Amino acid sequence: MAGRFVRASKYRHVFGKSTRKDSCYDNIHISRNAWDTNLIKVNPEYLSVNWDSSGGGAFAVIPLNERGKLPDQIPLFRGHTAAVLDTDWHPFNDRLIASASEDGKVFLWEVPEDFTLYTDAEEVPNVAPVSKLAGHSRKVGQVLFNPSAENILASASGDYTIKIWDVTTGQSPLALPHGDIVQSLTWNAAGSMLATTSRDKKIRVWDVRQEKPVHEAPGHPGAKNSRAVWMGEHNRFATTGFSKMSERQIALWEPGNPEPIGGFSMIDSISGVCMPFWDDGSNCLYLAGKGDGNIRYYEYENDKFEFLSEYKSPDPQRGIAFLPRRGINVHENEIMRAYKTVNDSYIEPISFTVPRRAETFQADIFPPA
């Protein structure tokens, strides 16, 4: 054992736990659209799913407590004239959701009171949007609510712009022009800066009010999609992407610094996009591979990512969503919960827990967040 040192961390033994099939969300028709998004989004009440439907685009909302095999006919959120590409839940109102579509529109919807998928009506009623935001000239690929300013929404489109909307007025006073298609966007915790990755392989950080990038740097050199996630309260963001040899990479950035801190680190040589998620409470970064069943997790410490462990599964995920921290079960020492799509037909919750024998509240693994 001489010279061997194991880094001390209260999250070192975190493990992912899959769910029995009868407690999953089954009989789901997930959109087969090839556009690269996460397909599902979750909040403590509901799960939204880009749905595979005819006659224009639609998405479904599933109450988290309605597990098991879903009815064959369920109420869909219909209104778009082309496929729904992305959705995002409002951070302060669990019943409000925005959707982006191939038809170039952004719609806002409200989940009805006492919403359920089980209805006795012969005709299953669909839900209509409460407001429509038009302004993009091409398809809208991503929508993302501002985490701190209420009712501010960013949408990224194939017209190479990101528009910032005030959803109460329906106006879009700000636009952030890019040179190519935006592949991902992420707000900082204060909601004043936006980091983006684009098909032109540049990483940009925008001061949104100035409508100009305060930082632009060459990103991952590979041709495949790159993703970015802001690391909460830290003045840092992480990106995932590919090298020229198509190896998956991860990088840690400080806005204003043209090089990633510690360079680009290789993860492996699997071909699927890495979807990054940040948990501010535990300072952990989760990387879920698209098209493989692995979820790796790292702890951020001393300006680097320390690998903790990996959840492995034979079932590949095409879409994944992570629950906001206010929805986790602290009684079971759960520090994170993911929902992953399996075979485009069911959604499986995966619970990440810290093994502890004590039955009282473990304050050290749940710092004030």
UniProtKB/TrEMBL annotation:
<comment type="similarity">
    <text>Belongs to the WD repeat coronin family.</text>
</comment>
<dbReference type="Pfam" id="PF00400">
    <property type="entry name" value="WD40"/>
</dbReference>
<dbReference type="InterPro" id="IPR020472">
    <property type="entry name" value="WD40_PAC1"/>
</dbReference>
<dbReference type="Pfam" id="PF16300">
    <property type="entry name" value="WD40_4"/>
</dbReference>
<keyword id="KW-0853">WD repeat</keyword>
<dbReference type="InterPro" id="IPR015048">
    <property type="entry name" value="DUF1899"/>
</dbReference>
<keyword id="KW-0175">Coiled coil</keyword>
<keyword id="KW-0597">Phosphoprotein</keyword>
<dbReference type="GO" id="GO:0007015">
    <property type="term" value="P:actin filament organization"/>
</dbReference>
<feature type="domain" description="DUF1899">
    <location>
        <begin position="4"/>
        <end position="68"/>
    </location>
</feature>
<dbReference type="InterPro" id="IPR015505">
    <property type="entry name" value="Coronin"/>
</dbReference>
<dbReference type="GO" id="GO:0030479">
    <property type="term" value="C:actin cortical patch"/>
</dbReference>
<comment type="subunit">
    <text>Binds to F-actin.</text>
</comment>
<feature type="repeat" description="WD">
    <location>
        <begin position="77"/>
        <end position="119"/>
    </location>
</feature>
<dbReference type="InterPro" id="IPR001680">
    <property type="entry name" value="WD40_rpt"/>
</dbReference>
<feature type="repeat" description="WD">
    <location>
        <begin position="175"/>
        <end position="216"/>
    </location>
</feature>
<dbReference type="InterPro" id="IPR015943">
    <property type="entry name" value="WD40/YVTN_repeat-like_dom_sf"/>
</dbReference>
<dbReference type="InterPro" id="IPR019775">
    <property type="entry name" value="WD40_repeat_CS"/>
</dbReference>
<dbReference type="InterPro" id="IPR036322">
    <property type="entry name" value="WD40_repeat_dom_sf"/>
</dbReference>
<protein>
    <recommendedName>
        <fullName>Coronin</fullName>
    </recommendedName>
</protein>
<dbReference type="Pfam" id="PF08953">
    <property type="entry name" value="DUF1899"/>
</dbReference>
<dbReference type="GO" id="GO:0051015">
    <property type="term" value="F:actin filament binding"/>
</dbReference>
<keyword id="KW-0677">Repeat</keyword>
<feature type="repeat" description="WD">
    <location>
        <begin position="133"/>
        <end position="175"/>
    </location>
</feature>
<keyword id="KW-0009">Actin-binding</keyword>
